[in-house]
Amino acid sequence: MSAKTAEEHFGLLADIGEIRALLSESPDLQGFLDRCVIMVANHLTAEVCSIYLYDEDSRMLTLRATHGLSKAAVGQIRLAIGEGLVGKALKELRPICVAHASDHPDFKYFPEAGEEPYDAFLGVPIQRGVEKIGILVVQRHARDRFSNVEVMAMRALTSQLATAIETARTLLQMAVSAEAATPPRVVQRSFFVNGQTASPGYACGPSIQFMRHPVERMLQLCREHEGESGGDETMLDQAIAATLEQLAGMQEALGRKLPEVASLIFEAHMMMLKDRSFVGAMRDRIGKGESAVRAVAEEATKYIGIFEASSHDYVREKARDVEDLALRLLSNLTGDDNKVGADWRGRVVIARELLPSDILKITLAEVAGIILVGGGLTSHISILVRSLSIPMIVADELLLAGVADGDMVLLDGDAGNAYVNPARDVIARFEERDRLRDKVAMHGAAMRDETFMRDGPRVKLLANINLLSELDMALDLKAEGIGLYRTEFPFLIRQALPSEEEQFKVYSRLLDRMGPREVTIRTLDAGGDKMMAYLNDGAEPNPALGLRSTRLLLRHRDIFDQQLRAILRAGAGRERLRILFPMICSLDEFRQARDIVGDCIEALEAETGETVTRPEIGMMVELPSVVDLADEFAREADFFSIGTNDFIQYMLGVDRANARVFEYYCPHHPSVLRGLKRIVDAAKHRRIECVVCGEMAHDVRYVPFFLGIGIRCLSVDPHYLPEVQQCVLGWSEEAAAAYAASLLAQNVISEIEKLLLDKSPV
């Protein structure tokens, strides 16, 4: 295969639209696997392509689909981890590429396969996070070995297919179970809710409870439609077709709204609708006289029980997919769209638990606002909701006990309050305030291209970004670059690890949009309050102090490599790309992470034959262990970025997501302020840039302090840029230095608070 042709095939394999077509066109799960092997074989001009799936209980790989080998071998060939070249690829979790497989010491011969003519072998592991799914194998005649570009193409494809194949594997391994219904919750009425702001803004609309009682809802629909019959199998077929159409529409809308998740979010739903053991069992029930509604409800309840009985978190999460899918099917069967999404438009959602995927679903339904029971204000859910510009408050459960579905709720996201069934004059007052807010937004037009203190020093203002949809606001408000791109949301909002190719596309769009401006991409900051089931190695007794951020990536080197490769590929030829490592606690850790960047650069250069631009490499300053070693860190890092949220949390030993100790989370604690100054002094001494990107960076009480200790770069959420710029413009270098010195001279919090309340610039 020529290099040009290989690159063309690589582009085709990275096209998720083709994978979506496989899903939609396949008659069932086995059909999907069969189509997969044909697609891969055609793209790589390989005579053979096979999929082996791994069973964790038996610790065996089984041939499940093949194109080119004997069909009789499907289901018959089984290998242990490490057995044969296929088992070796899974054991070592790396591609195995050999020109003459039969000469390799690990080769294992299966006469029933009929693979003798095909000696060129390439096997690539299929993984989803830490979960081993199987192996994708291609084979050719020995004279036509596989190239490095084709290895890259196979790696990209296995990442794209991982979730679909893993879902197929899970469904193929199902066993029968049952699920008990959850009793309904009784609610009472109330008229005022006082909470805390999670995402600013104003919303007014009827309330709706977001409750996880799908089994009860299904049983209710069964009772309401008991006795209905006639044409039930036809009705089921129509409901399935309508549901598939809805899912495709939601996927398309989601791709437009949030490019980071333009992957198969609803993939598990689509796979289940093609599973013979799922839909076929419904048909069997209908054939025995059950109504279509009861057949769907009973079969879905069985599946929910199967998944929730699993010992694996990622499998238990699939119960949510079944719940959502079953309610959609029942909605289309009965004409009742309650709780499925259509009647959420313009409503205020009250939820006791929200996963990132839930946020995406209700966002598509165009909700007006959200009231969340409990949860930390700086959690990833709050950040995601702010990025989507959905007003949200967090309130105590007792305060919400009286809010019933349909109650009119006025949500004041700025003050953290909600008014239940408010008087008309209250609504009018808030509507007027919202109109004034739009006028304030016009201040963006008055933003200066560059920001200077009153006596001349320049202060660079950058934007923190969670989603690409925020770039418009950042550019409209004249952000000079992106000081922090949080990469975790494509990981958090889905049930599978995003592939290198998916990440590459996101980072490329970010860098293309920002043009010559500076962009800092933070590597995955998972763990703590940002948990991902597919990376869960077991329960964390204290997640904030557990396996998170950079230490998690160092443990899962394959995930780290994929992300770094995607960043480096997207940054090709760009001079102002920076990579930022979170939660660095030692020089050893920083050096190890930096060396891995070097390894990825060498690997990419070897694969492509082209020089890879080496970005600046910096570190988040978030841990007390960095303070005493600040000068040594400043010798090695290209820049510092201070994450004040975690810095305060770990300096003071206060869980910032715990409402019971929230009063002890104090940004102006003397130790915090002095620790920040020591970090900045080390950066100035070694002549590296020090950026502040945490919550303190946009708080005008602290901006003068940062100016006074020498900070000349602040990175904030885009909507804070005008306020921060106005604050900087009002201070001189001398006045800010004097103000900072006055704060640093105090030993107790109360004295510092007096100075914070009287900080008029001089």
Short description:
The protein is of the alpha/beta class and 762 residues long.
Description:
The protein is of the alpha/beta class and 762 residues long. Among the domains are: 3-172, GAF domain (Beta-Lactamase, 2-Layer Sandwich), CATH 3.30.450.40; 213-339, Enzyme I, Chain A, domain 2. It has 29 helices and 23 strands. Strands 15, 16, 17, 18, 19, 20, 21, 22 and 23 form a nine-stranded mixed β-sheet that branches. α17 links the parallel β16 and β17 (481-486). α6 packs parallel to α12 and α10 (292-308) runs antiparallel to α12. The chain is globular. 48% of the residues are buried. Residues 1-7, 9-14, 175-190 and 338-342 have low confidence and may be disordered.
Discrete helix count: 29
Shape: globular
Low-confidence stretches: 1-7, 9-14, 175-190, 338-342
Hey, roughly how much beta strand do the residues contain?
Answer: 15-25%
By CATH reckoning, the class of the domain at 3-172 would read Alpha Beta
Helix content: 40-55%
From the 3D coordinates, which CATH architecture of the domain at 3-172 would you assign?
2-Layer Sandwich
Distance between the termini: 71 Å
Q: Can you identify the CATH superfamily of the domain at 3-172? A: GAF domain
Gyration radius from CA atoms, angstroms: 28 Å
Structural class estimated from helices and strands: alpha/beta
For the residues shown, what is the average pLDDT?
A: 82
Reported by name, the CATH topology of the domain at 3-172 is: Beta-Lactamase
